[in-house]
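Give me the fold.
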Amino acid sequence: MVEAQLVTLVASEGEAPVSDVDSCVRMLKRGRYEREQAALQREIVRLQQLGAEKHSSEIDALWARKRDLLQRIEELS
């Protein structure tokens, strides 16, 4: 579903948002990292709602992955 929306959005553009392959790759990676980061955040919230103390090690691991993704996103900017 998300991919279909992305393709529709890209197809509706009047011109390409980037003109070189490297910029295109960076944009695609950034989008993927942002979607993964949002999924991690949803999982963190879910586990916190189930009981942060019971799931503290899982939450810590998810936070570490999220921080790594945020760093990758920053490096692509």
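The chain has a mean pLDDT of 89.
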